Amino acid sequence: FAGPANESTQTLTITAVITGGDNLNLVNNFLPSAIVGNQATLKYTPVLNQFGTAIVTVTVFDNGVNGGPNGDVNFTTRTFTITINPVNDRPLLNPIGDQVSNEDAGQQSIILTGLSVGVANERPPQELQFTLLSDNPTLIPNSSPSLSVAYTPGNATGQLLYTANPNQFGVANITVTVTDGGDTLNGGFNSIVRTFKITVNQV
């Protein structure tokens, strides 16, 4: 309301700004709606990949006098807190192309690209872990050094190494699961799965 009945013709204006909290970049684009009766809606947009708390101060002004000999006041303020919970982002790994090699060719190497724990503010500090599974262990065993990953934490690339068993040929489907050690609270994701096919030609 603008105030008492004799001020009912005054126009109200609403502003909202972040004045405290542990993340001053938590939200933006405060958009107060038109005032209908004694109500208005304040809309805001959370900033992508940000979490924490922000204290918001809402000020309502009328177009009356502020200050002066009578101590007039033409605004009032209220504060509230916005809390946005952290959500773990899925780790990243680009798709892996199918591979072809020959029987008894020895160790083969595949460059893994696009590796990342997600956005920079993931917490706690995370490291990628790799799990490899062959659906044809007679051809590609599920153990190192027959199937392994060489990776330095923090790098965007790594190497997947595989060696087919001697005198074996055929097809193995490989499932690569990358986890980042984060949790899945609040709808978060802590893993990504990629699959590809290895074809070993008979020689």
Write the layout of secondary structure elements.
Blueprint lengths: L12 E8 L6 E6 L9 E5 L5 E10 L13 E10 L14 E4 L5 E5 L16 E6 L12 E4 L7 E5 L7 E10 L11 E11 L2
Question: Could you explain how this protein is built, in words?
Answer:
This protein is an all-beta fold and 203 residues long. The protein contains no helices and twelve strands. It has strands at residues 13-20, 27-32, 42-46, 52-61, 75-84, 99-102, 108-112, 129-134, 147-150, 158-162, 170-179, 191-201. It has a four-stranded mixed sheet with strand order 6-12-11-8, with no helix packed on it. Strands 1-4-5 form a three-stranded antiparallel sheet, with no helix packed on it. A three-stranded antiparallel sheet has the order 7-10-9, with no helix packed on it. A hairpin with a 7-residue loop joins strand 9 and strand 10. The protein starts with 12 loop residues before the first strand and ends with a strand. The mean pLDDT is 90.
